[in-house]
Amino acid sequence: MSTHDNGHEAGHDVVVHDGDALPARFENPGFEKHHPRMGDLDEHANKKSERIVVALFTISILGTLFFLIAYFVWPPGTTPVEMRRSNLALGLGLAFALLGIGTAAIHWAKALMNDHEKSEERHEQRSDDDTRAGAIEVLKDGAADSAIGRRGVLKGAMITALALFPLPIVLALIGNIGEDWNIGQLKHTMWKKGTRLTTDPVGRPVKASDVTIGSVWHIIPEGLDKEPHPLDEKAKAVVLLLRLDPRDIKREQGVGWSYDGILAFSKICTHVGCPVALYEQQTHHLLCPCHQSTFDVADGAKVIFGPAKRPLPQLPITVDDEGYLVAQSDFHQPVGPSFWERLK
Description:
Elements: E1 14-17, E2 20-23, H1 38-41, H2 43-73, H3 80-111, H4 129-145, H5 152-164, H6 167-175, E3 197-199, E4 216-221, H7 231-237, E5 239-243, E6 262-266, E7 278-280, E8 285-287, E9 294-296, E10 302-305, E11 317-319, E12 325-327
Antiparallel strand pairs: 1-2, 3-4, 4-5, 5-6, 7-8, 8-9, 9-10, 11-12
Helix pairs in contact: 2-3, 2-5, 2-6
C-alpha cells in the first residue's frame, strides 16, 4: 500500500491527513446500550413522574391566577413605588405561568414518553406518499406513547394551564378599552414660550455662559421638579442641550432656533423611545444605546444610521434678559417613536 501527499488516498481503506494515516470511512458504531429509566422499571416511579408534571402544570395555573389577581389589586399607579410593585407582581405571575408550562412539557417528554434512540436515513425533502403516510402514523404513535388518554389528571392539568395562560394577554388588551387614545396629545409637552431650561433632576436654571463647547446637559422644564406632574410629562419633555462651534453647524430645523451654537433636542429616540444620551464630541453624533440609531446634531439631528426614521425634534431656544436659556415655544414636531399617529 503506497502513501500519497496530504489528504490523498494512500490505499483503498486509508487516507493520509497531516502525515497521519486515517481510515477512509468509519463504520456506523450503532447506538449505545439502552439504559432504562426508573419509571420504565418501577410503576411507582412512573406515577411519581406523572405527579411532578401535574404539579408543574399546577404552578403554571397558580401563576396565571396570581397575574389576574395582581392586575386588579395592584394597578400601575402614578408613582415609581406603585409602578415597581405592579411590574414585580405581574412579572412574577407571568414568569411562573410560562415556567410551569415549559418545565412540565420537558419533564413529560423526558420521563414519561418513549426514550429509545432512533435514526433515519436522509432523503429528499419531499417524501413519497407512502413515507408521508408512515410519518402520520408515527405522529399517532407518539400521541399514543404519551398516554395522554389514560392520564386523566395530567391531561386536565395541561388543558387548564394552556387554557388559562392566554388570559393575562387578553386581560391587558381588554383593560385598555375605554382609555384615553387621543394620540394628538403626544404632540404637545410642557415647553412653552419663556420656560427656562433647568438641569435634570435638581431644576437649576442654566445660563448660556455656563454651557461650554463640547458639553452635554440633561434638561427639564422649569417647575417640573417642584409641582406634581405625571411621569409621562417628564418623559415627553426631557431635552439634551449641547454647544457646538457655530461654524460647525450645517443646518437647523428652524431659523434662529439655536443660540450662539447652543442646540436643544428631544432626548427621546424617534425609533422606540429609548433615551438618547451618548454624544461623540468630535463627530457631533448622538447615539441611542438601544438600537444604535445615530443622529447628526450639526445637521438638524438627522438620522445617519440605524432604524430611526426621522430626526430628533429640536426645541427652539433663546436667552432672557438675565442670560438664562429659555424656550421660544414647544416642539414643532411630536416627540417619541415615529409609529405614533401624528396630526398634520
